[in-house]
Specification:
Blueprint (H helix, E strand, L loop, with lengths): L15 H27 L1 H8 L3 H17 L1 H11 L1 H20 L4 H15 L1 H4 L1 H8 L6 H27 L5 H22 L5 H16 L15 H18 L1 H32 L3 H40 L6 H20 L7 H29 L3 H46 L1 H15 L2 H14 L9 H7 L2
InterPro entries: MFS, MFS_dom, MFS_trans_sf
Subcellular location: Membrane
GO molecular function: transmembrane transporter activity
Length: 488
Amino acid sequence: IKFDEGDPRDPQNFSYARKWAITLTGCVFSGITAASASSYSISYESMMHDLNCTQLQATIGLSLYVVGFGIVPLVSSSFSEETGRRPLYIVSSVLFMLAEVMNALAPNIQTVIVSRMLQGVFGSTGASLVGGCIADIWQPHERGLPMSLFAFSALFSFGLGSVFGGLIVANPHLGWRWVQWMHAIISGVYVLDVILVMSETRSSIVLTRIAKDTRKMTGDPRYRSRAEINKPSMLSLIKTSCTRPLYLLLTEPIVQSFSIWVGFTWGVVYCLLESVTSEFQSVYNFSISETGFAFLCLRKVIFIGSIIGLMVNIYQDTLYKKYFPTKGQEARLYMACIAAIVLPISMFIYGWTASPHIPWIVPLIALTAFMAGVFVIFQVAFLYLADCYGPYASSAQAGQSLARNTMGMVFPLFTQQMFAGMTYKWGLTLWALLSLVMAPIPWVLVFFGSKIRSHSKVSRKILEAEEQQLDGEKTVVPSPTEERSMQV
């Protein structure tokens, strides 16, 4: 059983309206989970007062949320490639909403910590499935804007969540519980959206269902989809689902390089969110009201940087369409090469202009440039990995997500000690130097990426599948036998 040419059941032949509905539904989930992370951290003080807990205990809730985002996609992303995207979306969104209700009703900090861990477990779907869904339904030359919106929804909502969380907590009649209740209400509405709008986008799953219906209607057991031929046992399926992201992370140079680069940058972002307000207060001797104003400016920096990054990525999409015939997948990386230069320069400027003799708006401008660069490489990481690993985009992105969220969890643990020992200026200089060391990554891939991929066993299998598609074979997902050969 395979798709005929132009078959409307083929996810890549969905109408544009249906594709955008699925894309935006996935982006909303990504935005909700990002906002949940930042709005939680802004409500520490209210929570500490209400539950009589320490800041360290409250911070554990944030760390476990990040841990869930790093580890769970190792299983969920690959499992969705075997069982389908839609069931996992529905189950995860429902359980994520219930975990938020649990948080809002928590009688003590221990319940909060458990609920936050569960939110990370179920909310991680927003980070692990969206990129795969976009790769399922959009052709490579069409993915630029959908992936840009995916990255925009994550970063923009990260700042937006803290702003709205701060407004709610500032009201003496509300507090931290209402932050969680608002999230639960929004998540409840989203559950309805997923049930009504989200369709199955994994072509192998759609073909398997068609084959089952055909066997039932005809009574002929010979009808099979390619994914059903030599189908592995459930134990083998679980093993493959759990190990494929780690396999790609440990063996694929492209996944490794982007994981290190994006992970380091993401760790710096978390550190800056933890330390910028304190830095401005100590350097410029801000009063409490001025510190609050600086905090709001920091959140606006995230907004502005995200918008600039979105515009840059839209321009990058035009470059991709222009140079893809000659550069292939590496045509995705032109603006990432520019961002690789902007990141260390902006960190140098930020570190060396945070002085009482220089207006505080100057380091904030540098910080805005830094956030725009972060947005660019965040989006390019998803797009480039989706292009290079096609059917296994979710697994490749799950490996990258593990590295990114691990660094996002670890970096804040030593931020204050590092700045206390080195000062802000030299601590930021160290980060800028490390960022400078990583700057050649996209440049190397632009010139040698295709050669690197030619030596990859996974990339060769995907290339063979794409060649079969060009010859008229519409089923582009390798069979389980081929998949097992990738695990050798």
